[in-house]
Amino acid sequence: MKTARNALAPRYELDERARLSFVRDLRRYVLDELARGLRGDYHAHVEPKLASRRTPTPQAIHGAMRSRDSFRFYSALRTTSQDMLYQYNRAAIERDRERLRVTAARLDARHRHTGSLRLRSDLIVPRSVSAIDIHLMPGSYHTEYEKDDLTMGAVYENRLASSTFGLFGPNLDDIGRSIATFVSMRNPLLRPRAILDLGCTVGHNTGPWKEVYPQAEVYGIDVAAPCLRYARARALSQRRAIHFAQMDARKLDFPDASFDIVFSSMFLHEVPARDIPKVLGEAHRILRPGGLMLHMELPPQNQLSPWDSFYLDWDGHFNNEPFYRGFRAMNLRRIVVAAGFNESNYEQHVVPSLHALGPGAWRAALRSHRTVDGETGRLATGVRWFCFGASKSQ
Ligand SMILES: C[S@@+](CC[C@H](N)C(=O)[O-])C[C@H]1O[C@@H](n2cnc3c(N)ncnc32)[C@H](O)[C@@H]1O
Q: 199 and 264 in contact (C-beta within 8 Å)?
């Protein structure tokens, strides 16, 4: 299905386009060539010393690599290029702020009865969001610079678009699209009435659920008001009726047994370990018996090779992601069961990317058994999505 153009898409000037094109190439160089060099350095010089004991842990690899020039150069260029992406996008968004606000207001006035937006000025943004410039994003998700501000939503979307090499598809929604389609194929009898996306940010991965299940009421919640305003305008400009609400996933404002699917993507690794049981417990509470909880996430440490885990954990050390490694160390089956789900209902999947493969090859790929490897959940040409969860017992 062709998605309508996002009316909030940035209007870069020529010099901004040139800068972004430069920094995209720089990132490609870092993530492809420098990453290959890093691995070569490890195998040639570090692994022989480490492996003489026993299989090294990701932490031991990190300890041994962090003083190597290959790693320091890789890390410095990666953080610098990340910073440049924010700066360059930010300049264009600052200039465009008024147009964004006017466009959002017009869309809202024109489509007042399509979906909804519920903000709560009394909601306390958790310190795990407000005290950290998460993944080096100045202002995190929640900062508001003026009334009805959308800036941080625009920053998030445009930084994502300019740093992911098109791997998330033209509408940045490949995770939601691949997983929603996968769920519908696996459960052909499922007719969800209500679907919820936790930590939806700008709703890019919420939208596909409405496409796959048009009869369902689809909700996206987040604590960050500027992202939710942006999400609503984005959804309206794409003719999608989605309900966005400012809410804390640790204490949802929905009645018991009111949803058939609770989904999240790239959310849990930004939640402190002590809060994850609360989030999963809330998901269990609001699911109807038979309903499905599914979280797309980074693959856990114990399901990747030590090298791949070390490589993935880079963000936990240098990208202002303080909860990342704690999440990856968790036993997923155990936390799902602790939240009230029956152990025999636990499930996890590796879903190929619909955007990368196209529908025909994607269906064929689903037939072969997929296991987690170094390309799962990472921006790589063979990208695929890891997800885990459980259905609630009837
Ligand atoms: C990495 S982003 C999620 C990205 C998005 N779901 C996607 O598919 O790319 C994490 C989001 O979770 C939100 N968040 C963090 N803690 C939260 C909480 N306790 N309740 C609701 N949202 C939260 C943040 O504001 C942010 O928008």
A: yes
